[in-house]
Amino acid sequence: MGMNAQRTDYDSGLVNQVADKHLAQLQQVWPEWEQLLPEQLASLRRVLGLSDFVAEQLCRHPEWIGEFFQHGFNHPERQNFTAVLHELMQEASTEEQAKQVLRQYRNKQMVRLAWCDFLCLSPLENALLDLSVLAEALIIAARDWLYNDMCQSLGTPCDKQGTPQPLMILGMGKLGGRELNFSSDIDLIFTFPEHGETVGGRRTLDNQQFFIRMGQRLVNLLGQVTTDGFVFRVDMRLRPYGESGPLVVSYSALEDYYQEQGREWERYAMVKARALGPWNHFSDQLHDLLRPFIYRRYIDFSAIDSLRRMKQLIAQEVRRRQLTDNIKLGAGGIREVEFVVQSFQLIRGGREPELRCQSIYEAIGALYHFHQLDYFAAEELRSAYSLLRQVENLLQAINDKQTQTLPDNALDWHRLCYATDTANEAELRANIEAAMTKIHRYFRDAVGGEESSEAVYDCWTVQLWCAPHLEDAKLLLAEHGFEDDSLADTLFAWKDTVGRRSIGPRGRETLDKLMPKLLEEIGLTNAPADAFKPVCGVLEQILTRTTYLELLYENPGARQQLISLCSASPWIASELARFPMLLDELIEPAQLYNTTSLDDYASELRQYLLRIPADDMEQLMEGMRQFKLSQQLKIAAADVTGVLPVMEVSDHLTFLAEALIEQVVHYAWQQVTERFGEPQDIRAGDMAFAVVGYGKLGGIELGYGSDLDLVFLHNAVEGTTNGERQIEVGLFYAKLAQRIQHLFSTRTVSGILYDVDLRLRPSGAAGLLVSSIDSFAEYQQQEAWTWEHQALVRARFIYGDNALAERFADIRNNVLSMQREPQPLAEQVHQMRLKMREHLLKVPKEMFDLKQSAGGIADIEFIAQYLVLANAHQYAELCMWSDNVRIFEVAAELELIPVMCAQALTQIYCHLRDESHHLTLAGKPTQLPWEQVRQSATQVIEIYQDVLGIRV
Questions:
Q1: Average pLDDT rounded to a whole number, residues 278-282
Q2: What pTM does this model have?
Q3: 171, containing H or E segment
Q4: What is the pLDDT of residue 302?
């Protein structure tokens, strides 16, 4: 009573002002206030001034006030929460009604408990226990209601013996320790004992699927914000594999995860884990299977090392001056008490069962009992911890808001001072600082002295990698000058990925050594968060391949190349992630940027394939893909670093494709002739077969990821093959084309070789896969559309017999040299360009598609094609080249267009292709803002209109 008398003397104008405002609002909605006794009205007015949350709830439910005064603030007692809730939930027939019951009961009891806290009607440990028991009762009531509801509609989940299986819930953190804050999130893990199926429903459902559905509904039932608020914010991220793991797993899966993949920070978290609800044999089983993971009979070096790294992380935290007002994370804060106590539990709990308790208060008592803390130390820790927990609880009860930061306004300081019976803010601050100083002293004693600044710098990325919580990582990064929180977010998402992968002890040890080095080197880049994302995408693919992890750990050059290439090009990063064998190419940076000579791709490929047995077609297909990928990586590396200009990049990609086409045709020929023999009447060593490249391949302008536009031709005479299974020659070449397609498009470990498009053949998709050279000539001269002649401008002989090469060149020259009327030709070319643009241009008005927008690459290509088709009958040299740049050179020499125009088209064309390459490597759409290309695009449009004589 003495304390309450002193509180009466504590007078705050700010608190009184707020109290009067809230009381006036309450009086408007609750006329019965006039029936209150003077001391009741005084108590009500006081609490209205101390807690906005209480005021808001009482204005919505003023009928609670009479109940509180009638029954007393210790009613109902905590042991009755479960029974009362059970009765209330029986009346709920729908999920919406269940939500309302849970939320209104929660709010009513939280108002009562806040009233007790602010007016000091209950000791702190009782208040924390009340909050925890209330939370547990609400969770179990929601669980049991959902279980009954789902069993009625889906059947009861049972094991193989027909025993009903329950959803078991592990309460983690302060809920597990029965020391919940006023406005805490609740950390939960859902599990069930045995696999099986539902019994009694319309159809059977796997137990895990039943409980996953139930878990999803339970999280929603507790956490969804309705007009009545929420019950609790539910955090499920502590479950196996974190957010990426199943919401609910069986006991056996839980045990396997912690035995095989459990990390030290998960041991730390599991110290407070507790099965919620009425205790039964399922609860015993759950704790029995977790105990060997949490508490080891002997301390192994990995545990000691992990504790040391956690110590270093917290030592970093407590030096942060900006956290002095954070009573959880600051030096001497709540976190340090938890660390000291739980580290003792982890080290000694295996031998001393009494230390296996979830409550900090109980654990401090047990540590005193086992002489780990003397009496004075235990009492100082308990007292200091209690003050911080009291202030934390009151801070959160002011507005039902999760916070551990001391107020930044006078009103809330006055509220805290009243509730803690302190004269003023200065005195309360002094008390808090004294408590935190004591805690920090015991913390230093438990974990050792402070490291030197040099040592801290040397190992800070080790601490970053081992940080148990996201907020720890963000604070550590902030101290080292990283303002962007996204690096910490990405790192923790990556750690979650690592946590759910089984990589074995050797792999995990290597990864733990590698990651601090990678993080330190990534930290030196201009955009660490952007660099880390693609790098961890690569690492994700090699987690189970310890050899690659060791490669990166042992080779600083390879690490540096990985970071620089991934930073420079998301496309390269995606290639490395898809095909980890490319990491071998990073070991020698000098070789990485030493691209193969254009003339050597074919011989290099043959040498590469010699190491594979000639009769192992699967391995030969894989070998070709690996060769392509490694060569393409070299080209891209030289490209992003400026070693290769755009024209040479396309040359290299084109010559690489040609070498692979030759090898594919060779293997396809080998396979088909083994079955059917060769066509009769062809010369030994010949195939009477040719591959013609169209589009970018024909124009020697391939890009990354380009497909191959191919046309197949033959000049064999009619007849049959000479094998044991003779088939008609036309069918033979069709089967050869199909085999070529198969070798290109079959997906192996290293993906496909190329996408192949055969639609430019005579009659398109309706035509034969392979045309005879004579029918090809007849089609081009008599049936082909103008757009097909445009495509022929870009056609180039890629592979085949010399006789076919000569014949194709003649046909191409003759077709392109046909005399055409300029005006109808220009109209046809222009209409085709408009049709293409209509179908393919998909960008906003303010953006410019490098290929399809007016003034882009396609317009330049059409200018070149028109110049050839309109003038080749007079100037045969226009038929010599299939690439646009040299067509413009010849056209300028022939004075068909001004030299300045040809140079402008060439320059713009090369620039746009260069931009296209780099945007592809950057993993972005091939678009630029219109304003950025306005001048060059306008120039192209003007030249296009002048050359074709078109006015738009």
A1: 94
A2: 0.53
A3: strand 168-171
A4: 41
